[in-house]
Design goal:
It contains 5 helices and no strands. With about 100 residues, it is mainly alpha-helical. Helix 2 packs antiparallel against helix 5 and helix 4 runs antiparallel to helix 5.
Length: about 100
């Protein structure tokens, strides 16, 4: 499964490089809150659900799948979400570097 479906991300942003940077920055801006919730916050389920939707929206498929698994597995799935989030951020960084 792809970490980042670049074609989906490009489609959802109308292939607009400026919009892609903005979307990636918005996603990154929410990471600290998600990470805090994943570290054992009481609202981890809400964070995982929100993260899943955000990930799907921009083509971060592996992250969305990890979130879906955590919703089914419970807290045991949070380590997978954290690992997939790290991969997703690296993929977004690589996408930005390739677009530059």
């Amino acid at each position: 499964m792809l970490v980042l479906d670049r074609a989906h991300f490009q489609h959802m942003t109308g292939q607009d490089a400026g919009l892609q940077r903005e979307v990636a920055a918005l996603f990154r801006g929410q990471v600290a809150g998600w990470e805090a919730a994943l570290a054992g916050g009481q609202d981890w389920r809400a964070a995982v659900h929100t993260l899943k939707g955000s990930a799907r929206g921009i083509g971060l498929l592996r992250l969305a799948a990890a979130c879906e698994a955590a919703e089914a597995e419970g807290e045991a799935g949070l380590a997978g979400v954290a690992a997939a989030l790290s991969e997703a951020l690296a993929a977004l960084d690589q996408f930005a570097a390739d677009a530059a």
